[in-house]
Amino acid sequence: MTAFSPNIRDMEFVLAELAGLDEVAALPGYEEASRELVHSVLEEAGRIAAEVLAPLNAVGDRQGAKLVDGKVALPEGWEGAFRTMVEGNWTGLPFPAEWGGMGLPGVVNVAVAEMWQAANMAFTLCPMLTQGAVHAILECASEEQKAVYLPKLVTGEWAGTMNLTESSAGSDLGAIRTKAVPQADGSYLISGQKIFITYGDHELAENIIHLVLARLPDAPPGVKGISLFIVPKFMVSADGTLGARNDVAAVSLEHKLGIHASPTCVMSFGDNGGATGFLVGQENRGLEYMFVMMNHARLNVGVQGLGIAERAYQQARAYARERVQGKPAGAAAVTPIVDHADVRRMLMTIKANVEAMRALAYVEAAELDKAHAEPDADKRAQSFRLAEFLNPVVKGWSTETGFDMASLGVQVHGGMGYVEETGAAQHLRDARITAIYEGTTAIQANDLVNRKILRDKGATAKLVLDELAALADELAAASDSRLKAIGTELAEGRRAAADAVEWILSAAPQDPRLPAAAAVPLLKLMGVVLGGYQMARAAKVARARLDAGEGDLDFFEAKLNTAWFYAEHVLPQAPAFLASITRGADAVMTVPADQL
């Protein structure tokens, strides 16, 4: 497997020029996030990614997680890597200093997460979920609960999990059966079983804090009757010391296609009388609270798609530069396969999509920072709406694209990509889960259609597309032929996206099945076009730097060329997606079920 080296140069460009790091750093609470400090953070995180996490990726894939004598055993090196995380307080990077965190913006945390997900996705799931638990407790729990659980979760000494899914209730959380029975002391006895719980048990942390969805005895049916509970692996006293083992255990591990080193547990609560849990917030508002954690996870799973694609790109590029086979068309001699036209196409496709995904994810993260810290209420609300709109696109499009790019990475290797020796196959296997967990692509797409477009009658979508249109018109009038091409293709993509939104708005009242049938093509259309928007913004900056003769001119030339490639090879997908929406949706619903 090729050594991994984070692309910090491009990450810093996106942070500074597209995500607006300086603007975020000017917000209250983020004043320490200067470019110099962020550079130091990224350099050190990149070193950990390259030297600590990446070498364990193949090890973890081969050894996997195992359940031995009732305990989860993890691969060699996991304990040392976890200790590195705790000693560096990396889990606490985006959290307030009052709880032991670094107090840096979430957009910086996303950049760090990209490197770690690319280096070793199976390992990085653990701190990722712990951060999600911290977000939920910070926003939804009582002050007493925060005081008990946050200090050790923020430092990463304790781990956190999210317990939603049950065997009889997959994505339909309204069907969960786990019970919560009130006790005289204010606690609850939790009983039931949860499946697909990532890092549900392990020996890395001294305690694991489970956030569990359960139903009270008198709860109303469906999602309106779900409550959220804190269920610690070991009971915690008021002063933070650990007590007796709680009645919660991993009873089996799933055998999976990929991420073998990440223990995916079946968790049983209350086999010996009932696990002690503590209500978070108000009764029957559990789903609302859990979405605080879920939305954090969805952004970060989108970053997993990005990270896997970056790792697959580096792997494929290194192989293509060394592998010699055949004489490229038009060449006078045999050279490495990177000179073959189709290999160049594949490598540029991966590279361009990686840069588009990176920009879109970082922009969403920056908008979330503004939604959290911007003093002006109207600006906060606007940033929140934009981040909410981008969330399903980043999660759904980036994970689907990440898998496709990992598949292209295998293709670049040819037959060697299909065997485990090169490591390309692991990236493909690991990537497949990203489009499934934390809400499948269809769930993200339906969220985009129903909550982000139909709910506000397309207002947010139209606002985004209007901004895009202005840039497309500007670039289409540029003298640089590459900018002109970018602007022209972006305008075509924008028209396709705008027509798709209008079709959704008109189709929904006629037949609610039609928007559902068109939802995934719509999500992919939005991803392609919004990714193209970010690439166009990058191209404009690159052209200005080249004209001024400022900075790393080779980098800016490459950035402009990559944006041009994206416009000519990726953006033309937009009209095809529009056809799948406006014509294909009806075809989907017309075909009888017995013909499927």
Automatic annotation (TrEMBL):
Q: Does the keyword Transmembrane apply?
A: no
**What catalytic activity is recorded?**
3-(methylsulfanyl)propanoyl-CoA + oxidized [electron-transfer flavoprotein] + H(+) = 3-(methylsulfanyl)acryloyl-CoA + reduced [electron-transfer flavoprotein]
Every Acyl-CoA dehydrogenase/oxidase N-terminal domain range: 43-157
Question: This protein's superkingdom?
Answer: Bacteria
User: What is this enzyme's EC?
Assistant: 1.3.99.41
Gene Ontology molecular function terms on file? flavin adenine dinucleotide binding; oxidoreductase activity, acting on the CH-CH group of donors
This protein's cofactor list reads: FAD
Please list the residue ranges annotated as the Acyl-CoA dehydrogenase/oxidase C-terminal domain.
284-450
Q: Which residues form the Acetyl-CoA dehydrogenase-like C-terminal domain?
A: 471-591
- Where does the Acyl-CoA oxidase/dehydrogenase middle domain lie? 162-270
- Keywords assigned by UniProt? FAD, Flavoprotein, Oxidoreductase
Q: Which SUPFAM superfamilies match?
A: Acyl-CoA dehydrogenase C-terminal domain-like, Acyl-CoA dehydrogenase NM domain-like
Q: Pfam families in the record, alphabetically?
A: Acyl-CoA_dh_1 (PF00441), Acyl-CoA_dh_C (PF12806), Acyl-CoA_dh_M (PF02770), Acyl-CoA_dh_N (PF02771)
Q: Does the keyword Acetylation apply?
A: no
Family designation: Belongs to the acyl-CoA dehydrogenase family.
Cited function: Involved in the assimilation of dimethylsulphoniopropionate (DMSP), an important compound in the fixation of carbon in marine phytoplankton, by mediating the conversion of 3-(methylthio)propanoyl-CoA (MMPA-CoA) to 3-(methylthio)acryloyl-CoA (MTA-CoA).
Q: What is this protein called?
A: 3-methylmercaptopropionyl-CoA dehydrogenase
State the organism named in the record.
Magnetospirillum aberrantis SpK
The root-end lineage is: Bacteria, Pseudomonadati, Pseudomonadota, Alphaproteobacteria, Rhodospirillales
